[in-house]
Amino acid sequence: MALRLVVAWILTLASVPVFAAEVDGFRVWTDPEKTRAVLDLDTHADYQLFTLDNPPRVVIDLPKSSLDHALTFLEEHAGVIDNVRHGSPQKNTLRIVLDLENKSSIRSFLLDPTGEYGYRLVVDLFPENHAQKRSAVKQLVDKQKENRNVVVAIDAGHGGEDPGATGKSRTREKDVVLAIARELKKSIDAQPGMTGVLIRTGDYYIPLRDRFEKARRNRADLFVSIHADAFKNRKVSGSSVFVLSRKGASSEFARRLAASENSSDLIGGVTLNDKDDMLASVLLDLSQSATMEASHAVAESVFGSMSVLGKTHKNHVEHANFMVLKSPDVPSILVETAFISNPSEEKRLKDPAWQRRTARSITDGIQNYFYMSPPPGTWIAANRQPVRHRVVRGDTLGEIASRYRVSLYSLRRINDIKDDKIRVGSELLIPTT
Ligand SMILES: [Zn+2]
């Protein structure tokens, strides 16, 4: 039996005392190039790693380390790893063995704590047999294609030391938008092929840039930020849907709003400097055209379903320079659900039934959008349903066609409409091909 010392004796420094580590977790992930295994450790650890053939396996020895539970991993992410087991060949040495499907070349390294992660030992496995590697890649691609759910990141605005706007009877924006966000997650999770992910799950502040970064880490297909508006004039009411404007705020009103929403980053203790803004604008120009196009489409769809629910502040989707919408690659919208400064809307914002209806209405708009333009490889792409539009007062066939980005001709044809008259309350089928 050949013992190959691939990466031998990685005792970081000979003079450093041997560390005792506890293995807290084990994760694997496979991309087209490699399978990555990660051991979560509670402290810095020394380790030795070598490979054995027949059958191929990787042996990791962690002196003075311990493990008090079985290591498990998700099979669909396992790639070249067949099995993982552990034992103790010598007293006080923890040995972890990865059984491999194919001989692989190995790269390993230690990582220091960062963000939510602690110390990690990373083992990358590159399968050597190309045909088998290709099949592993194909398997992975198939897995990725396998009717995944679309992921909707739901961002409840403000939080923690940033209460957002406050109503006349002291209702705080941060509280009602979290309640609506939770309802929205419930409503989205109840739809086949859709999963909601809450960006903020409690009463704490998340810097604006971290909000869309968290959405990107969750591989979100869409980012929806939930807010409640405020204005000096307490009579102002209605919901609004915003997308990012390229040229900044498009009206005085939107500019005021953008200033107040963006200022929460200062309240939260993070100052956005010029460099960040420049980087953001460069990113924006490079990759945001397609994202903005998709943001517009989803905003139109959500605006359409919100206008079925109740009064909208304006009769169109608005644009503003919201930092939280600046994700370069995740379509993003911001929904101002109602005016907390308007006493009757403040009352509604607190009403669980209204919160549920609003969440359902946003869900409808999002769902319609995904049925119109499903991301490839998703359950929705494989199970497209016809999209229906409920006609509200003021709708015209031309507006509906442009809102859903379909031709007037196909809209007339699928609904068998001859004279372009549409009845308020009736349902129109929207062509999805
Ligand atoms: Zn807000």
Can you put this structure into words, describing what you see?
The chain has 433 residues and is of the alpha+beta class. It folds into three domains: 3-145, Immunoglobulin-like (Sandwich), CATH 2.60.40.3500; 150-382, Aminopeptidase (3-Layer(aba) Sandwich), CATH 3.40.630; 387-430, Roll (Membrane-bound Lytic Murein Transglycosylase D, Chain A). Helix content is 33%, strand content 26%. It has eleven helices and 17 strands. Strands 11-10-12-15-13-14 form a six-stranded mixed beta sheet, sandwiched between helices. A five-stranded antiparallel beta sheet has the order 1-4-5-7-6, with no helix packed on it. Strand 6 and strand 7 (93-100) form a beta hairpin. Helix 6 (274-309) packs across helix 8 (352-372). The radius of gyration is 26 Å and the shape is elongated. The site of zinc ion (ZN) has 6 residues, from loops.
Overall 3D geometry? elongated
Q: Into which percentage range does the β-strand content fall?
A: 25-35%
Can you write the helix and strand succession as a string?
Answer: EEEEEEEEEHEHEHEEHHHEEHHHEHHE
| Biggest sheet record | 6 strands, mixed
Q: What is the CATH C level class of the largest domain, in words? A: Alpha Beta
**Gross CATH architecture of the largest domain:** 3-Layer(aba) Sandwich
- What fold name stands as the CATH topology of the largest domain? Aminopeptidase
- Uncertain spans, ≥5 residues at pLDDT below 50? 1-17, 135-140, 248-256, 264-286
Instruction: Give the helix level as a range of percent.
Output: 25-40%
Number of strands: 17
Q: Structural class, please?
A: alpha+beta
Superfamily (CATH H level) name of the largest domain? Zn-dependent exopeptidases
Question: Quaternary arrangement of the chains shown?
Answer: single chain
What Rg do the Cα atoms give? Answer: 26 Å
Number of helices: 11
The hetero compounds bound to this protein are: zinc ion
| Average residue-wise pLDDT | 81
